[in-house]
Each structure stands twice: as C-alpha cells, then as structure tokens.
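User: Could you go from structure to sequence for me? I need the amino acid at each position, not a summary. Structure tokens:
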C-alpha cells in the first residue's frame, strides 16, 4: 500500500546553498597576491615588497580554510596591510619610504614587522589546529535553522545591554571591562546575520539595515568604529564559496562605499572631534547626537572627491604603522638599553590586577612608553590622546631583533587557542566561530596596539565569554534555532533531532 506523506502546516527549511570548495587558495586571493607582487616589483622597496608578499602567501597557506569565514587570516591580512603600507606608499610616491619620512631605521622596522606577522600566523595555526570542525557541513549546518525575528531580538538585546554597561562604566570603571564580552556577543550575532545572507541569500535586507545602522552609530562616535561592521561583513563573505552575482555586486558596491567612508573620515575627523569635544583636548563628547548628525551632514555636502582622494593618501599613511617602531630602533639600544622583558612583564602584571579588585589602578598611557623609547615627545592622556609604539616594537625593545619573535609566537598561539576553544566548546561550532570572530576583531586586529592593552583586553573578554559559554550559550543557541518550531501542529508527534516533543 502506498504511503501518503502528511501535509505539514509549515514551510520547509531553506537549503544551504554552500558547496564544498576544492583545497587550496581561491582565485580571488591569488589575483590579489599577484597584484601586490606587481606593486612590489615596481616599488623602490622591491626586495622588501617581494618578501612581504611571500609572507602573506605563507600565512594564507597556513590559515585559509575553504568554505568557512576566514577570521584568523583576516587578522593577519589587516596587520599585514599595516606593515606593508610603506611599500605601497613608496610605489605611489616613486621613492623609498625611508626617504619619505627621513628615518633609515624604518626599513628595518618594516622587515621585522613583516617577519613578526609571519611568526604570528604560525602561532595562530599552532594554537587553533586541534579545534577545527571537521568539514564545511558541520560549520554551516546551523545557518538553516536561524530566523530573522530571533536574530533581531538577540541583536537588540545585546546592543542595549552593551550600551547600558558602557554608560554604567562612566560611573564605575570596572563595568567597562565586564561589558566587553557582551559587546563581542553582539558582534557575534551580527556575523551570524551576515553569514546567513552571504552563504544562503537569506536576510539580505536585515543584514544591510544593520550595516547601515552600525555605520551611522560609528560615525557619531569619537573614533571611526563604523569600520567594524564592514570588517565583520568581509569575514562573513570570505566563507561563502558560492556567492551569487547579485550578492557579489552588492559586495563590490559596499567595498566602494567603505573606501568613500575611509577617505571622508580622514578629511573630517580632526574637525569633527574638535566639534564633539567643543575644543577640549580630551576624548569626550559634549554635544548631542542630533547636533553631531547635523554637522556630519553639512560636512558631506562640503567634502568633494578631490578631498576624498587626499583622505585616501592620508589614510594609507595612517594605516602604515612602522614609524614609531623605526624611532624605537634608532633609540634602542644606542641610547636606551633593551629592557629584558620589562614591557611584557608590565602587561602581565597589569592584567593580573583587575580593576574591580584594584579600582585605583593607574590608567594606561601609551604615550609615556613612546616618549621614553622613541627619543621624542608625543602627546599623551593630558591632551586627550594616546600614541603607542605597537606590540611589535615593544617586543623589540624587550628582547631585540631576534628574541622579539618569541612573545609574538606565544601571542599568536594564545589567540589561536582562544578562538579554537570557543569553536570547540560552544553548543555549535557556528556560534563559537561567531564569538571567536568578535573576540579577535575587537581585541587583536591592530598592529599598533600596545601589549599592555591587548593582553588585558583579550583575557578579560575571553573570561567573560567563558562564563557565557558555560552558563548561557546552550540555551541561547537553542532559543535561536528552535524559536520558529513552536507551533502545536509541529510539536505533536514529530521528532526533532531524535527527541520527541
């Protein structure tokens, strides 16, 4: 007798359109490497440029995992851009970067920074290699269970919670540290929304709405945090091996918009920050959101494309972060001796003194280190700014041009281990990847970050995520993926993952 399948009163799940990708680097990345290689060949810093491209190729071979968001490689790629910036600047100006800024030691700083990034990629690989999900299917299978409604609720709740904690931090500083994990969970939800769109084509309007909203909010802040949403979108898109033409076209358009934003921000940021603080030399905001948006709208009408082009050139110079490292090499050890690990010991000591137990702990002023070890005076906290040498330069000051790679390798291993632990111990690797991505983007993305900030920031945020994973992650994930299956018709007599409901 023929069996007639019952007509169920709900829509079938959309299928995941991802397909397994062949091993090896994707064509787009190979083209990008060839473009950088051509730039290196015609740059005055030819040998340095070719070496930098080789470092990026090695890092890609180590970290690229087809068919999943390339979080670890993105961290390397962004820092590589910062170290490779002098080569690009030399290519555009037609003269060596050391001649542009007048510091011969910056050439050595660039060599050491690129080598350090290669060492960092090895550390990331070693730290994360035993915690990778087996195959693409296990990584993305959770996408088909996600629905817009629950994702929106989770995003709004995490955003409000992070904002509340940040405001409370103005009264009691330790709240700021406690809120870092909540901020990371928020960006983890954003990554799930973006990845669901790029991999499956589901929720595109929601993804674009959140990107626009976060960009506007970021532009209203003191710093250029509007970039974070674009970074998360790039990482999500890097996991899509079957990107449709429409989504590819939207990606290209968003890339162009990001470039416009970056050029515009470089032009107006000094004036904008002065307006927000009403001329005060401090990182404070004393004007309303409405006034800030009005000011930004007027600035958009005044800034032309020529100004944006100049902003791109200034942005490339700002992106390149080896200058202070070059000054440090000029000063250490000729005028100031190597510190034999003092700066990393200070970072560890500062981390082991959490602010909720030591509320009177001194605030971090990176400019003090920069002035002490670069043989120059830079503006500091008393003028509302903080200028860092960067963790590469600080490692050199501690241990010299060879020993510096030991803490960098350990730092990379620690980042990889934290990212891998989250992927392995959350209820689903997809949620772990989302939280791990937020962790690394917010705490370990920038080459210029001082070790005392990045080490403390990573550990505090990771411990907060451990609490989230142990106490809330399972319920949170089940709430996300089962929220749309609560109709009576479905819950009567049908099986869900082997369990009758």
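Assistant: Here is the amino acid at each position, in order:
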């Amino acid at each position: 007798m023929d069996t007639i399948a019952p007509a169920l009163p709900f829509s079938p799940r959309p299928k995941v359109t991802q397909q397994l990708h062949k091993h090896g680097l994707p064509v787009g990345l190979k083209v990008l490497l060839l473009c950088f290689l051509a730039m290196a060949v015609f740059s005055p810093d030819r040998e340095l440029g070719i070496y930098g491209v080789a470092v990026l190729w090695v890092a890609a071979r180590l970290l690229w995992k087809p068919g999943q968001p390339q979080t670890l490689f993105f961290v390397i790629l962004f820092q590589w851009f910062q170290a490779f910036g002098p080569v690009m600047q030399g290519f555009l100006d037609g003269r060596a970067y050391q001649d542009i800024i007048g510091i011969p030691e910056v050439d050595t700083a660039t060599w050491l920074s690129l080598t350090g990034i290669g060492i960092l990629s090895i550390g990331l690989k070693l730290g994360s290699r035993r915690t990778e999900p087996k195959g693409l299917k296990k990584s993305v299978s959770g996408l088909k269970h996600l629905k817009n409604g629950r994702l929106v609720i989770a995003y709004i709740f995490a955003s409000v919670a992070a904002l509340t904690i940040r405001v409370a931090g103005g009264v009691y500083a330790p709240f700021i540290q406690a809120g870092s994990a909540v901020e990371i969970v928020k960006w983890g939800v954003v990554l799930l929304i973006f990845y669901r769109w790029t991999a499956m084509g589901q929720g595109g309007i929601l993804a674009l709405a959140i990107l626009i909203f976060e960009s506007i909010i970021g532009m209203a802040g003191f710093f250029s945090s509007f970039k974070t949403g674009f970074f998360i979108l790039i990482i999500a898109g890097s996991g899509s091996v079957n990107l449709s033409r429409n989504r590819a076209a939207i990606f290209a358009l968003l890339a162009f918009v990001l470039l416009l934003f970056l050029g515009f921000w470089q032009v107006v940021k000094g004036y904008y920050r002065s307006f927000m603080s009403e001329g005060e030399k401090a990182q404070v905001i004393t004007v309303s959101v409405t006034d800030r948006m009005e000011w930004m709208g007027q600035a958009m009408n005044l800034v032309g494309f020529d100004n944006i082009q100049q902003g791109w050139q200034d942005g490339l110079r700002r992106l390149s972060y080896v200058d202070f490292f070059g000054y440090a090499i000029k000063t250490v050890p000729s005028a100031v001796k190597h510190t034999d690990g003092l700066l990393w010991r200070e970072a560890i000591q500062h981390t082991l003194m959490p602010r909720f137990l030591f509320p009177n702990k001194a605030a971090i002023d990176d400019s003090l280190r920069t002035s002490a070890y670069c043989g120059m005076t830079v503006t500091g906290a008393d003028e509302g700014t903080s200028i860092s040498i960067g963790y590469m330069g600080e490692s050199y000051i501690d241990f010299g041009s060879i020993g510096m790679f030991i803490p960098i390798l350990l730092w990379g291993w620690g980042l990889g281990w934290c990212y891998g632990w989250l992927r392995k111990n959350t209820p689903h690797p997809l949620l772990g990847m989302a939280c791990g991505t937020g962790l690394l983007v917010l705490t370990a993305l920038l080459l210029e970050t001082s070790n005392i900030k990045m080490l403390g920031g990573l550990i505090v945020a990771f411990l907060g995520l451990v609490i989230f994973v142990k106490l809330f992650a399972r319920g949170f994930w089940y709430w996300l993926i089962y929220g749309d299956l609560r109709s009576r018709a479905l819950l009567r007599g049908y099986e869900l993952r082997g369990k009758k409901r």
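One structural detail worth keeping in mind: Residues 1-21, 484-501 have pLDDT under 50 and may be disordered.
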